[in-house]
C-alpha cells in the first residue's frame, strides 16, 4: 500500500477536500492531514475498520458519481455508529492499492495468524494510548495507567514484579519485545493451563494420543479424533519442532481453544449446511422493516446506506416504499411523515450492485408501491434491476427461469439471484403462467386496516389522472408490474379456514405484531399449520415511532417466515435475529424444524408436549472466565467494571428463562466465575441462547458490556470460547468468555 497518498475526502456534493493519507509504520494505524495546513486531522486503527467498498457504494459517492469515476472511489466503513469515510483517489491504480491493502489488513486469513494479529493489534493500540510522552518506552507509572485503562485492578507490588521480570535491559522502562513479555505474563491463563495438565503426562506437551483423548472425552468429537488431532497440531502449534514431533504445546493448546474450532459455534454450521430445495414457506427469512430508514419513523433520515447495511448483515427481505416525487421522479420514503427522501433510481441502482455480495439467495421486496405520475421515468428506474426480477414464462424482455409445468411452490435453490416482488396482482399466478387471464385486478388490502388505510392515502396523494394517453401508459406499467408479482401476491387475511379454502401457496398476507400475537394466543396450532404452506409477514406496530422492535421469537415459534425488524435499532431483538441467521452461510434463510413444515402438525408453542420427538434436554453451562472485556462506553477515567454473565434462553414460553453469575469486583481483564448454570429446554429446535456480560451497578441498571447469541442447534459442547459482540452486533476482539458446555437428554 502506498504511504502519504493525496486523495479527496468527500462529505457532500459541495464538500470535497484534499487530504494526505498515510499508513503508519506499525501497519495498524492510518492518519490523514490537511494538504493546505499540513496539520494532522484525524487517525484511526485498522481494528476499527469493518469493510472497504469499491465504487459508488455510499450515498455520498453516488451524489458525485458524475464527477468522479467509480474505479477511483472507495468507502471505508467503520464498526459501530462511526460515519463512513468516502475517498476519491487520483487514479484507479492508486484506489486499488489502498482497497487491496486495507482488505489484506482487515480480512481474516488462516486463524492462527489472525489470532496472533488480533492480540498484537490490541497490544499496540494500548501501548500507544498509555505512552503519554510518545517516546516508544513505558515507565512503571505509565504501566499503572495502562492497567487501569485495560480494566485491571492489580496489586502494585505484583504489577511491579511483572514489570521488573519483563525489563530485561534493566533500563526502568519497557519497549518493544519487553512490553510483549509483560503482556504475556499479564494474560497467562491458569484455567487453561490446568486443563492442559489434566491430559498431559509431563505437563509440558500433549502427545497426539493425549490430544485425541481430550477431543473425544471433553469436546465430544466422536469421529476421526486422531486425524483431527493431527490437523489441529499442524494448524495451531507455533513451534516447528513440536509440529515435527506431532505434539501440542500449551501455547498451541490455547491457540486451538481461541480458534474457530474452539468456538461455541459449530464451525460446520457457518457454511451453507441446510437443504435449500424446500418451498420458500419452509424457511425463516431475515427481514427488515422500512429498510431505507436509519433513524426514527417520523423525522428520520432515509438513506441507501440502510439497504447496504441490511444486506451486509444478511438481510434477504427488504422494504421499498415508493411515492411520486417532484417532476415525476419516483421517491422512496415513509409516506405522510417528515422523513427525508431518496430517489427510487438510487435504491434500484444500489440493490443491483449489492444484493448478491454476501448471498445468492432470493431477495423478496416488500411494500413496493409503483409510482404512477410519470411511467416513463419509473420504467427507466425499473430497467436497472429488471434482469433480476422473477418474471412469468414468455413475458417481458428479460430471460426467465420459469419452465413449462413449473411448481407454484419454488425453492431458494431455484430462485437464486432473483428478486421477488410482493404486491397486488391482476389475476392469479396460474393465469400468468398459462397466459393472459380475464380475472379482474385484486385490489384487496391487509386484514387490520392499517395497510388498507395507507393505500387509500397513497391513492389520494397520486391525485387525479390526466389525459387518456397518460392513463394508457399507467395501465401498461401496472400490468408489467403485476406480471412481476409471482410468488408473493398480496392478499388479505380473513382467517385460517378462509385461507385453506381459497388461498394459494404463491400468496402472502401481512399482519401487525398485535394481530399476530392474538392469533398465537387464540389459534396457535392453526397458525403453525398455515405457515407450513403459505408465507406470512409480520411488521412492527405503527406506535413504534422510535424504530423500536418487538421480539421476533414469538413469531418464529409459530413458523412466521418474514418477521420484519428495524435493523437500525440495536438491542436484544436484533441480537436474536443475528443469532438465528448467523448460520447456514449467513444466506438469510434458515430451514424450519420438520414438525413446522407439516400442514397437519399438532404442534402448538403453548404446549411443548405437542411436539413430536424426544423429551426435553438439559443444558449445563459452566461459566469459567472472561478475557479482556471492554470498558463501558462513556465511563469515567480509571473506572473498572464489575462483570457478571447472564445466560438467557429464548424459545417457546415454557423454555423462556435466564440465570446469572455473581459479579467480580474490579476486574474486566481476566475475571473468574467458575459457576454452573443449568436449563431444561423442551423445544430445542426453536431455542436461542444469549450470553450477556454486564457491569454490575447496585444503585442503577447494569451497563451492557458485550453479548453473543446463537441457535441451540449450532452449539458445540465441551470447553469453548465465546467471542463477544458489541451492542451493534460487531466484533470486539479479543474480548471473550471461556465456558464448558454439556447437553444431556
From TrEMBL:
Gene Ontology annotations of biological process type: intracellular signal transduction; lipid catabolic process
Keyword Cell inner membrane carried by entry: no
Start and end residues of each EF-hand domain: 118-153, 154-189
Catalyses which reaction(s): a 1,2-diacyl-sn-glycero-3-phospho-(1D-myo-inositol-4,5-bisphosphate) + H2O = 1D-myo-inositol 1,4,5-trisphosphate + a 1,2-diacyl-sn-glycerol + H(+); a 1,2-diacyl-sn-glycero-3-phospho-(1D-myo-inositol) + H2O = 1D-myo-inositol 1-phosphate + a 1,2-diacyl-sn-glycerol + H(+)
EC number assigned by the record: 3.1.4.11
Every C2 domain range: 597-726
Record's protein name: Phosphoinositide phospholipase C
Amino acid at each position: 500500500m502506498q504511504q502519504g497518498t493525496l486523495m479527496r475526502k468527500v462529505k457532500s456534493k459541495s464538500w470535497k477536500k484534499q487530504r494526505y493519507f498515510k499508513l503508519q509504520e506499525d501497519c495498524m494505524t492510518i492518519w490523514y492531514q490537511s494538504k493546505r495546513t499540513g496539520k494532522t486531522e484525524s487517525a484511526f486503527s485498522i481494528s476499527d475498520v469493518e469493510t472497504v467498498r469499491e465504487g459508488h457504494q455510499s450515498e455520498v459517492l453516488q451524489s458525485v458519481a458524475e464527477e468522479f469515476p467509480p474505479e477511483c472511489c472507495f468507502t471505508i466503513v467503520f464498526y459501530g455508529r462511526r460515519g463512513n469515510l468516502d475517498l476519491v483517489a487520483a487514479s484507479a491504480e492508486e484506489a486499488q492499492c489502498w482497497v487491496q491493502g486495507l482488505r489484506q489488513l482487515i480480512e481474516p486469513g488462516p486463524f492462527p495468524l489472525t489470532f496472533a494479529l488480533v492480540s498484537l493489534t490490541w497490544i499496540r493500540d494500548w501501548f500507544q494510548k498509555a505512552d503519554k510522552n510518545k517516546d516508544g518506552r513505558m515507565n512503571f507509572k505509565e504501566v499503572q495507567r495502562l492497567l487501569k485503562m485495560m480494566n485491571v485492578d492489580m496489586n502494585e507490588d505484583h504489577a511491579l514484579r511483572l514489570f521488573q521480570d519483563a525489563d530485561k535491559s534493566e533500563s526502568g522502562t519497557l519497549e518493544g519485545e519487553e512490553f510483549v513479555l509483560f503482556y504475556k505474563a499479564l494474560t497467562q491463563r491458569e484455567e487453561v493451563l490446568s486443563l492442559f495438565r489434566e491430559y498431559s503426562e509431563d505437563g509440558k506437551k500433549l502427545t497426539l494420543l493425549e490430544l485425541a483423548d481430550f477431543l473425544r472425552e471433553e469436546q465430544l468429537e466422536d469421529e476421526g479424533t486422531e486425524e483431527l488431532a493431527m490437523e489441529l497440531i499442524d494448524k495451531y502449534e507455533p513451534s516447528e519442532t513440536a509440529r515435527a514431533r506431532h505434539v501440542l504445546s500449551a501455547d498451541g493448546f490455547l491457540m486451538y481453544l481461541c480458534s474457530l474450532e474452539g468456538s461455541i459455534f459449530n464451525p460446520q454450521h457457518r457454511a451453507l449446511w441446510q437443504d435449500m430445495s424446500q418451498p420458500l414457506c419452509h424457511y425463516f427469512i431475515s427481514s427488515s422493516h422500512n429498510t431505507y430508514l436509519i433513524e426514527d419513523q417520523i423525522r428520520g433520515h432515509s438513506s441507501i446506506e440502510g439497504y447496504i447495511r441490511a444486506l451486509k448483515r444478511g438481510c434477504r427481505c427488504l422494504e421499498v416504499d415508493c411515492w411520486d416525487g417532484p417532476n415525476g421522479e419516483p421517491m422512496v420514503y415513509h409516506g405522510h411523515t417528515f422523513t427525508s427522501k431518496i430517489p427510487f433510481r438510487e435504491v434500484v441502482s444500489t440493490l443491483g450492485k449489492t444484493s448478491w455480495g454476501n448471498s445468492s439467495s432470493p431477495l423478496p421486496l416488500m411494500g413496493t408501491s409503483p409510482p404512477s405520475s410519470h411511467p416513463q421515468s419509473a420504467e427507466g428506474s425499473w430497467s436497472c434491476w429488471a434482469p433480476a426480477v422473477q418474471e412469468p414464462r414468455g413475458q417481458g424482455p428479460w430471460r426467465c427461469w420459469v419452465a413449462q409445468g413449473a411448481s407454484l411452490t419454488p425453492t431458494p435453490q431455484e430462485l437464486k439471484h432473483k428478486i421477488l416482488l410482493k404486491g397486488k396482482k391482476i389475476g392469479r399466478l396460474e393465469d400468468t403462467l398459462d397466459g393472459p387471464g380475464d380475472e379482474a385486478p385484486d385490489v384487496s388490502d391487509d386484514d387490520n386496516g392499517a395497510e388498507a388505510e395507507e393505500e387509500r392515502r397513497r391513492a389520494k396523494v397520486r391525485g387525479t389522472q390526466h389525459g387518456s394517453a397518460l392513463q394508457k401508459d399507467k395501465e401498461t406499467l401496472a400490468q408489467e408490474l403485476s406480471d412481476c408479482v409471482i410468488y408473493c401476491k398480496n392478499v388479505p387475511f380473513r382467517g385460517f379456514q378462509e385461507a385453506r379454502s381459497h388461498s394459494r401457496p404463491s400468496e402472502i398476507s401481512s399482519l401487525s405484531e398485535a394481530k399476530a400475537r392474538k392469533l398465537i394466543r387464540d389459534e396457535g396450532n392453526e397458525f403453525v399449520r398455515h405457515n407450513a404452506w403459505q408465507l406470512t409477514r409480520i411488521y412492527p406496530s405503527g406506535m413504534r415511532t422510535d424504530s423500536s422492535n418487538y421480539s421476533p421469537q414469538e413469531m418464529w415459534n409459530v413458523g412466521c417466515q418474514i418477521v420484519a425488524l428495524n435493523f437500525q435499532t440495536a438491542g436484544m431483538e436484533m441480537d436474536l435475529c443475528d443469532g438465528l441467521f448467523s448460520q447456514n452461510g449467513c444466506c438469510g434463510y434458515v430451514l424450519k424444524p420438520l414438525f413446522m413444515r407439516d400442514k397437519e402438525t399438532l404442534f402448538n408453542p403453548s404446549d411443548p408436549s405437542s411436539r413430536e420427538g424426544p423429551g426435553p434436554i438439559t443444558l449445563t453451562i459452566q461459566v469459567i472466565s472472561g478475557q479482556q472485556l471492554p470498558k463501558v462506553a462513556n465511563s469515567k477515567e480509571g473506572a473498572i467494571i464489575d462483570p457478571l454473565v447472564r445466560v438467557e434462553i429464548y424459545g417457546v414460553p415454557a423454555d423462556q428463562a435466564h440465570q446469572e453469575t455473581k459479579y467480580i469486583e474490579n476486574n474486566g481483564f481476566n475475571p473468574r466465575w467458575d459457576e454452573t448454570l443449568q436449563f431444561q429446554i423442551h423445544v430445542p429446535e426453536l431455542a436461542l441462547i444469549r450470553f450477556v456480560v454486564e457491569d454490575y451497578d447496585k444503585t442503577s441498571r447494569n451497563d451492557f458490556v458485550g453479548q453473543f447469541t446463537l441457535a441451540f442447534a449450532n452449539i458445540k459442547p465441551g470447553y469453548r470460547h465465546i467471542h463477544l459482540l458489541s451492542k451493534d452486533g460487531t466484533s470486539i476482539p479479543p474480548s471473550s468468555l471461556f465456558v464448558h458446555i454439556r447437553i444431556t437428554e
